[in-house]
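help with this.
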Amino acid sequence: MLRPLWFVLNPFFTTIVFSFVFGGLAKLPTDGMPQTLFYYSGTMLW
């Protein structure tokens, strides 16, 4: 029942973790792109 929703929620939760780890702790640049959009687009393509 949650299978279609999982295709969106899984990358969303991964984006939250990536934003915290790579954006908050490591302070990696995203070349002016918003961090959430940058990480979400990468995880959606993966």
